[in-house]
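go over whats below:
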Amino acid sequence: MEDLDRTREIPGAADRILRTLEMFGFEWDGTVEFQSRRTRLYEDALGRLQQAGLAYPCSCSRSQLARWAVASDGDPVYPGTCRAGPGDPGAATALRFLTGPPGRVTGFQDRLQGWFEQDVAAQVGDFVIRRRDGFHAYQLAVVVDDAEQGVTEVVRGCDLLDNTPRQILLQRALALPTPAYCHLPLVTEPDGSKLAKRRRSLPLDPGEAPRLLCAAFALLGMKPSPGLARADVGSLWAWAAENWSLEPLRGVKSVAL
């Protein structure tokens, strides 16, 4: 459960998420882990990176960051301003990962999207691994979590494809294994924009689980029969497991509703 930022945590939200997943037939093999309870693991990883000279404090403010070029994910490309030390020693600092000089490409073979590579230093810059407010950043937390839980395959949306080279750099720096990756197409609005609550992104209704699962299977390139929407959730998942294939999705990055 990704709940690192306690200031944005809504009371009861985690329990509602887990109950909804259960009602849609999802299962897990062991104890559900919460990132907010794993601070020691993240601090240990940060300590190892700092000891290796691969993390440094950065005092740059948001207004300073806004002056620089923007990467494909919308964040500024960090030019290494504080590599020699914080520009404002009295300010609160984030911790950044030292990516090294430009020209070093990090790539991987995605199960669906094929070969993907990125010059992280040139296209992203030294990225944040602990924020100014003290919260550990997503990039670090997810790498530590995957390794600690023995994750061997990561399946997620294409919006996180650009994040993967950063995570691979952290895995290498921490001597952690790199999982296999599969980035699924995003479901979008007809104009290609992300689903939005003010448009057609509605809460999931567990009472409509069979119908909604069939709709999701269809978006994944499967062909559920109309009568399948009247089956129970267990039967739906059995059908999906038997009929699942990546082929209809190969190279596809988005699917419009």
User: Anything to note?
Assistant: The radius of gyration is 21 Å. The chain has a mean pLDDT of 91.
